What we know:
With about 250 residues, the protein is of the alpha/beta class. It is built from 10 helices and 10 strands.
Amino acid sequence: MVKLDIKNLNIWFGANQALKNVNMQIETHEILSVIGPANSGKTTFLRTLNRLNELSINFRMRGLVELDGQNILQINAELLRKKVGTVFALPTPLPLSVFDNVAYGMRMHGVKKDLKGIVEQALKEAYLWDEVKDRMKESAFKLSGGQQQRLCIARTLAVEPDVILFDEPCSGLDPISTAKIEEAMLKLKEKYTIVLVTNNVRQAARVAQRTAFFLSGELVELDKTEKIFTAPSKQRTDDYIRGKFG
């Protein structure tokens, strides 16, 4: 089943065209990784899916993005970002306690009942509960970098999105923290659709069912991850995978 349907997507920032006629579908309960060198359009593509690009000056879009068959431009932006949550490259905890960080989004959306239960479940899904269950009143800034990133994942999960966008979530983390986040992703796809932008091709190979390769704003190739990494159909994909550029 298709969760996100992208049709003839073109994005400009002023005179610079960041995405060029992108067509693709993202399936329900899959991890789709998006790879490519710097300035390939990966993050622009990700930010399109919950309309974060609209916050940028001189942004212009042509084409269609549908979530469950509905044009995302017809969905209230705040509601869309609840349905399509984002975890950014750098952990962004709020200057609040561990508990209040996870509960923040729910309170913003007016949820008042069973906050404790929802916070606990979100922390368990983010593989963080066992490490913080006795530290719920402590400042989130006292957590390690890897713990802070999983806290941000829990904060996203608490508002019950349909889709989670990960923008290089392990870029500044050590291998142990990275492994925990990857383990969480593999479990989360049972409930959520995940789009992962990563510069780590090995990470894409480890967790993604399908992989999209972007280059200079174009979607060069989209296929099963195993095929992309062993027998890509495009020479440009093969060159990138082999490290000939990027």
